[in-house]
Write a structure and sequence with these properties.
Length: about 525
C-alpha cells in the first residue's frame, strides 16, 4: 500500500503526504491497541497526542515549498485547526480523568455471592465464562481474587457493584458474610440475579425459624459491624423469591450453561452477548480426556475449569468423559488422560468403570496419564483398598488405580486466586508432550448385540450410533452374496470367515437401526457385534 501511493499520485505531492500520514496514523492506532499502556485513559492520551503530532509535522513541511498567499492561508488555517483539536482533546481527557476521580461510579459490574464449600468452583467457572463471553469487558468481583478488599465487603456491594449474582446452593443463605452481601444489596436496591442450583429452595416459615435459631454470637457481631441485625437479614431474604431467578444445572449440556451466563450478562448490559466459549470448541478427534468425580456438581465444575485452562494453553481439544461409551469413542484419537483427583474419587464407581475400560480396551496402546490434585482431602489408595478390589475379582482395576496414584500429581487449587491457578495450570501443561502423527486406536473388546437389535420395540430407533460395527459373513462372499456398497470385506487373520466392517467413527453418517437387520440376513450375516462395551 505504501509503495503504491507515489505511483498512483506521482505529480501530486500534497496527496502523497496526506495518504502516507493517514497510513502512519492507522498503524499507530493498531500498535496502540495491541500494545496498550496500563490503563485505557493512558492509551487514549498517547494515541491522541502522537496522532496530532504526526499531522502537525507533516502539515508544517508544506511551508518549505509553499508559494502564493492562497496556499499559505490554507495551510495556516489547517495547521491552527490541528493545534486546536489537539488542545481540545487533551482538555477533554483531563476533565474526564477529574470526573472519574470524584465520581468513580461502579467498580464492578457483577459481584458473585456464594458459599465457598458449595459453589466456589462454580463461581470460578461463572467468572471465567462471563469474561469469555464479554470479551473481557465486564468486571466481576470474586472474593478469592480480591483478598485485600474482604474487610469492606458490605461497602463494595453497596457502592461499587451494579448487579449481585447469588450462586444459590443449599447453605448459601446460612453463611453470615453471604447474609451481609444479600441484605446490603436488597436495602440499597442493587439489582440481584439468583443462579438457582438443584439443591436450593426458598425458606418457608419453618425454615426462617431454624435460620433465626442458627445464628451464633459471632454471626451477629459480623452483622453489627455492617449495620445489620438478624431481623434485617430475614426481611431481605423474604424478598428474594421476587428477584430474577435463573435455573442452573451443573450436569446440563454446556450450551445451556452458557445460555445462563449470557442472561446474567444482559442484566448489566442490554447488548446481546453471543454464547461463545472454549467449552463449545469440540472436535471429533480429542487430544486429551478429562476424567474425575463428575457425579458431584463441584467435582464436575472443577474438571470443566481445568479443561478450559488446558485447552487455552495447549491449543488442543479436551473432552470430559462421563461414561464408558463416550470414553472409548473419544480415546481412539486421544493421547493423554487427565485425571482430576478429588475427595471420594476412588469410591466413585463410574470413575472406576471408565478407568478400567480405558486401560483394558486398547491392549498395549493405553493413554498416558497426567494427574492433578484438586482437593487436599483426596485419600490415596491404601493396602486395604487394593485388597477390597482384589476380593471383588478386580485385579485389572487394581493395576489401573496404581497407574493413577503412582504418578506424581501436580497441585491444582480451583478455590484460590486466578494468579495461583494460572501458575499451576502452566506447570501442569508442561507435562503434555503431544505427537504430531495422527493416532487411531482400535478397540479389542467386542460384545454381541444382534439379540438386542431384534428385541428393540421401535423399529426406526437408531441403535448405538457412532460405534465401529463389525458384521461376520457366514461363509465366503461368493456363497453369501455381495456385501452392501458401504461395507468393505476383509479377511480376518486366522479365520476361514470373512469380516465386513463398518467404521462409523470415520463416517459419522452411518446409523444402524433394527430396520437394517433383515437386509443383513439376506447377505448371510449371522452376527452383529460392536467393538466396545455397551
Amino acid at each position: 500500500m505504501v509503495a503504491l501511493v507515489p505511483i498512483l499520485f506521482a505529480n501530486v505531492a500534497a496527496v502523497q503526504i496526506v495518504l502516507l500520514s493517514l497510513m502512519t496514523v492507522l498503524y499507530l492506532v493498531a500498535a496502540t491497541r495491541v500494545f496498550p499502556w496500563a490503563t485505557d485513559l493512558a492509551n487514549s492520551a498517547d494515541l491522541f497526542l502522537n496522532t496530532g503530532l504526526t499531522f502537525f509535522l507533516i502539515i508544517s513541511s508544506f511551508f518549505v515549498d509553499a508559494s502564493g498567499s492562497d496556499t499559505r492561508t490554507f495551510l495556516s488555517v489547517l495547521l491552527m485547526t490541528v493545534i486546536g483539536l489537539i488542545s481540545f482533546g487533551l482538555q477533554a481527557l483531563a476533565l474526564r480523568a477529574l470526573w472519574k476521580r470524584f465520581h468513580p461510579g461502579k467498580n464492578y459490574n457483577f459481584f458473585l455471592c456464594h458459599h465457598k464449600a458449595g459453589a466456589a468452583v462454580l463461581c470460578r467457572w461463572l467468572k471465567s465464562e462471563m469474561l469469555q463471553q464479554s470479551g473481557g469487558k465486564v468486571r466481576v468481583f470474586l472474593d478469592s481474587d480480591e483478598l485485600e478488599g474482604l474487610a469492606d465487603i458490605g461497602d463494595i456491594v453497596k457502592s461499587q457493584t451494579s448487579v449481585l449474582v447469588i450462586a444459590a446452593t443449599k447453605l448459601v443463605l446460612t453463611r453470615p458474610w453471604c447474609a451481609v452481601e444479600v441484605a446490603t444489596a436488597v436495602r440499597n436496591k442493587i439489582d440481584i440475579v439468583m443462579v438457582k442450583c438443584s439443591d436450593f429452595s426458598f425458606y418457608d416459615e419453618e425454615g426462617f425459624r431454624e435460620l433465626r435459631e442458627g445464628w451464633t454470637s459471632a454471626d451477629i457481631l459480623i452483622f453489627a459491624q455492617n449495620a445489620l441485625d438478624p431481623s434485617m437479614v430475614e426481611e431481605s431474604y423474604r424478598q428474594l423469591p421476587s428477584v430474577r431467578t435463573l435455573d442452573f444445572d451443573a450436569f446440563a449440556d454446556p450450551s445451556k450453561q452458557q445460555s445462563v451466563v449470557s442472561q446474567i450478562l444482559q442484566t448489566s448490559y442490554k447488548a446481546s452477548y453471543r454464547e461463545k466459549s472454549r467449552s463449545l470448541i469440540l472436535d471429533l478427534t480429542p487430544d486429551v480426556l478429562v476424567l474425575g468425580a463428575l457425579g458431584s456438581s463441584e467435582g464436575r465444575m472443577t474438571c470443566q475449569v481445568l479443561r478450559d485452562m488446558v485447552m487455552e494453553r495447549t491449543r488442543k481439544h479436551a473432552w470430559l468423559v462421563s461414561s464408558v461409551k463416550d470414553a472409548l469413542h473419544a480415546a481412539r484419537t486421544a493421547q493423554y488422560l487427565l485425571v482430576v483427583l478429588t475427595a471420594g474419587l476412588l469410591r466413585d464407581e463410574n470413575f472406576l468403570a471408565v478407568l478400567k475400560a480405558l486401560d483394558t480396551a486398547f491392549g498395549d496402546e493405553r493413554l498416558e496419564i497426567v494427574s492433578a490434585l484438586a482437593d487436599q482431602n483426596f485419600e490415596f489408595a491404601s493396602a486395604a483398598y487394593y485388597q477390597e478390589l482384589s476380593d471383588r475379582g478386580e485385579d485389572l482395576l487394581v493395576q489401573s488405580v496404581r497407574r493413577v496414584v503412582n504418578i506424581l500429581a501436580l497441585p491444582f487449587s480451583p478455590q484460590t486466586s486466578i494468579k495461583v491457578m494460572n501458575a499451576q495450570a502452566d506447570e501442569l501443561c508442561r507435562r503434555f508432550r503431544f505427537k504430531d502423527t495422527e493416532l487411531r486406536r482400535q478397540v479389542t473388546v467386542s460384545l454381541p448385540v444382534f439379540q438386542q437389535l431384534q428385541s428393540t420395540e421401535d423399529e426406526d430407533q437408531p441403535v448405538s450410533p457412532g460405534h465401529a460395527l463389525r458384521m461376520h459373513l457366514a461363509s465366503t462372499p461368493s456363497d453369501a452374496g455381495t456385501p452392501p456398497a458401504d461395507i468393505q470385506a476383509e479377511p480376518e487373520d486366522g479365520s476361514e470367515e470373512d469380516v465386513a466392517v463398518i467404521d462409523s467413527s470415520r463416517d459419522p453418517g452411518i446409523w444402524i437401526t433394527t430396520a437394517d437387520v433383515e437386509p443383513m440376513r439376506q447377505y448371510s450375516i449371522d452376527t452383529l457385534i460392536v467393538d466396545e462395551p455397551m
